[in-house]
Amino acid sequence: MPVEFSDTDGGDARGASAKAPPPAPRVRAHRGYGGNRVLLAAAPARTAALPADGTADTEAGGPLLKVVTTRHPWRWVAAAGIAVLLAMAASALITNPAWEWEVVGEYLFAPSVLRAVVFTLELTALGIVFGFLLGTVLALMRLSGNPLLNSVAWGYIALFRSVPLILQLLFWYNLALLYPRISFGVPFGPAFFDIGTMDLIGPVTAAALGLALHQAAYAAEIVRAGLLSVDRGQREAAAALGIPRTRQLFRIVLPQAMRSIVPIAGNEIIGLIKGTSVVYIMALPELFYQVQVIYNRNGRVIALLLVATIWYLVMTSVMSVAQHYVERYYGRGRG
Fold it and tell me: Where does the chain have alpha helices with state H?
């Protein structure tokens, strides 16, 4: 219903006041995630694009808009503090002659060190391949409805996760003290032939066996967790379509489970690269043992330890990059 005002004093003012729109509220806007926040003074009408100076006129001739950037002084304080610490660390590494960088450069690509790096990678590959193969079998046993298979897998995992790796390596290295000869034949029956344990299980075999059996206990839980992460309805739907159980596992369940398996498995591989240093107790020429041999001969302890550190850093960095691409491959269908 229209409102009319008389021509008395103040009528026009009251009418203009009644027809004027209420002032718009102040608006707080965000420019991207983690970016600077801006506070815009509200205008009664739509505004044009902001020019470079941060102000703009409204179409209706309203007040100018002023962009006010939120200040983050503590970010700059924290960044300055970290920059100072990094500069101090770099100065300590460069200016202190005790690091002996010239010796590091001399031995970094020495033939004996390079052979030790290759041997370290070989031990890692053996431990990971056979460890995850056995771990997958143990994971399937843990998920089995057979109580005997389930119990055996559970006992294996509990045992090998409880005993330190160095003790397991020493046990396999000294297996000949328990069983001088190993026989092959019918169980609890006649033996067809036997062989000396020292001839069958040498130091390299004992190291690979110890690493693989130790890694299998952890791999079993990683694979089991990945399989359980796949919705049960996937298996039920595949069974309803008559797909064999083996095909269900390798074509339906396992590709989806890899999204959960790969990140943790990547961490285990990186950990095993460093864990191979434990086999130095068996006098095998892996990286850590080799640098020990060199610095015991020339006395350059810090420089040779830096050589080992650099090579471990290179190997783990390459594995981290490979893990990133494998994760992206298996996660490409997500979302």
Answer: 11-19, 73-95, 101-108, 111-142, 147-162, 165-173, 197-200, 203-229, 232-240, 245-247, 254-275, 287-298, 301-330
Among residues 335, 329, 309, the alpha carbon closest in space to that of 266 is found at 329
Name residues whose C-beta falls within 8 Å of residue 226's C-beta, 6 or more positions apart in sequence. Answer: 257, 258, 259, 260, 261
pLDDT in tens, 92-113: 888 888 888 999 999 999 999 9
Query: Residues in the chain, how many?
Result: 335
Please name which of 296, 300, 280 lies closest in space to residue 288, comparing C-alpha atoms: 280
Q: What does pTM read for this prediction? A: 0.72
Q: With left for phi above 0 and alpha for psi between -120 and 50, is residue 161 left, alpha or beta?
A: alpha
Tell the residue number behind the tokens 């130095």, with chain if given: 280
Class of residue 91 by CB neighbours under 10 A (exposed 0-12, middle 13-18, buried 19+): exposed
